Every structure is written in C-alpha cells, then in structure tokens.
C-alpha cells in the first residue's frame, strides 16, 4: 500500500504593516518661500546654466539652482582653449569671447558690405518690416510685419575682421591665465593680511591696555609715597 503525498500548501508571504507616512502640509506661504528664498529645494541640485547666462526660460519654476554667487559667474580659462574637461558639468561660465563683440550698425540698418569678414557682430533678425525699409510704416511701434531698424546718420566705416594666428590666440590664453592667477593671488594675500592684522590688532590693544594699567597703578603708588 503506497502512501499518497499531498503537496504542502505554500505559505503566504508575511505582510509587513505599512509604515506610517509623514503627513504632508500645504500652507499659503509655501509658494512665497519657494519663489523668494528657494525654500524647500534640494541644496545639492545642479546649477542652472541658462540662469548663469541670463536667460532661464523656466524662471522661478526651474528645478535647478539659481546661484548668483560671484564664483559661479567667473569665466573659465580652460574653455577659451577648448580643453575644459568638466564639459556641461562645469560650474563656471562657458562663453565664447566672440559673443562679446559689439553689433554692427550697418548690418542692423539692413546691409553690411563686408559680410562675414566684418569685425563687428551681425545679429540676425527674423524679419524686417518692408514698409519701414521703404521709408515709412503706418503701424509704427505696433507693427507686426517685422523689426524696425534704426538709421543713424554718422555711421563709422566698417572694418575688416582680422583673423588671429594660433600663436596670437595662445599668447592671449596665457595672458588671461596669468591675469586670473594674479587676481587670485592678490585676493589670497588680502585675506591673509586682513586676518593677520585683526589678530595683531587685538593682541596689541590688549597689551597696551595691560601695560597702561600697570604704569597708571605704579604712578599712583609712587605719587602716594611723595
């Protein structure tokens, strides 16, 4: 007679009691604290690169950090030589020096004879108003046909853009690095000097008061003898 083996019922997994969730509170001033003081946001969140360049489209709703510290507004010298290893994670600004060139008034007026060889910057506009270019636009400031360029009368003659050699670019890069190192050294020396002066000044005043008090007591004592 054979015994029939019945399968053992599988044990149900032990269910842990749900952890008590912390209550969530919403106050009327929470939005004000978040907007004005960035309260409640993770301080370790990355810095917004668009905000550093001055054109963050998200504004106060940006999930990244809007830091206005001077250390974040510095230009990295490595980007000028195209060797910044930090890439997009760099905390310093990556701005092309060519972007700092002033705009060309001839191009803003509608035409620059030098074209891409101009030494000034050509800011492209989406569309110019054809009526304004002809001499008069009846819509004025409310024109929807395009931009209204300005027409100054005393325009400077356009100059040809001078292409710099690799040696000149390298010399400028070295000069920028030296200038930045010199400024950092001056700041470091100024901080050290202020710290040492504060320490010496404190001890010096305390020593003078202490010595002055001794002389005063001694003088009064000698005066009493006479």
UniProtKB/TrEMBL annotation:
Sequence ranges of Basic residues compositional bias: 208-220
Top-rank lineage group of the source organism: Eukaryota
Zinc finger (C3H1-type): 42-69, 98-122, 123-151
Repeat keyword on record: yes
Composition bias, Basic and acidic residues: 157-195
Gene Ontology molecular-function annotations: RNA binding; zinc ion binding
Ranges of residues in domain C3H1-type: 42-69, 98-122, 123-151
Gene3D superfamilies in the cross-refs: Zinc finger, CCCH-type
Family recorded in the similarity comment: Belongs to the CPSF4/YTH1 family.
A single Gene Ontology CC term: nucleus
GO biological process, one term: mRNA 3'-end processing
Protein name per its UniProtKB record: mRNA 3'-end-processing protein
Function text: Component of the cleavage factor I (CF I) involved in pre-mRNA 3'-end processing.
Annotated organism of origin: Stemphylium lycopersici
């Amino acid at each position: 007679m054979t015994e029939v083996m019945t399968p053992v019922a599988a044990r149900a997994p032990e269910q842990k009691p749900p952890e008590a969730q912390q209550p969530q509170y919403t106050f009327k001033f929470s939005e004000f604290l978040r907007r004005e003081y960035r309260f409640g946001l993770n301080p370790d969140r990355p810095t917004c690169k668009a905000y550093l360049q001055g054109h963050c489209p998200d504004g106060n709703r940006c999930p990244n950090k809007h830091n206005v510290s001077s250390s974040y507004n510095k230009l990295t010298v490595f980007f000028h030589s195209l060797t910044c290893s930090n890439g997009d994670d760099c905390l310093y600004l990556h701005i092309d020096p060519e972007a700092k060139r002033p705009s060309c008034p001839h191009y803003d007026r509608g035409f620059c004879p030098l074209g891409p060889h101009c030494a000034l910057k050509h800011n492209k506009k989406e569309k110019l108003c054809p009526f304004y270019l002809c001499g008069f636009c009846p819509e004025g400031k409310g024109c929807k046909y395009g931009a209204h360029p300005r027409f100054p009368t005393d325009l400077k003659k356009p100059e040809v853009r001078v292409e710099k050699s690799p040696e000149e670019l390298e010399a400028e890069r070295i000069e920028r690095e030296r200038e930045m190192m010199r400024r950092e050294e001056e700041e470091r020396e100024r901080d050290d000097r202020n710290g040492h002066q504060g320490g010496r000044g404190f001890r010096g005043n305390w020593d003078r008061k202490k010595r002055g008090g001794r002389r005063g007591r001694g003088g009064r004592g000698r005066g009493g003898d006479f």
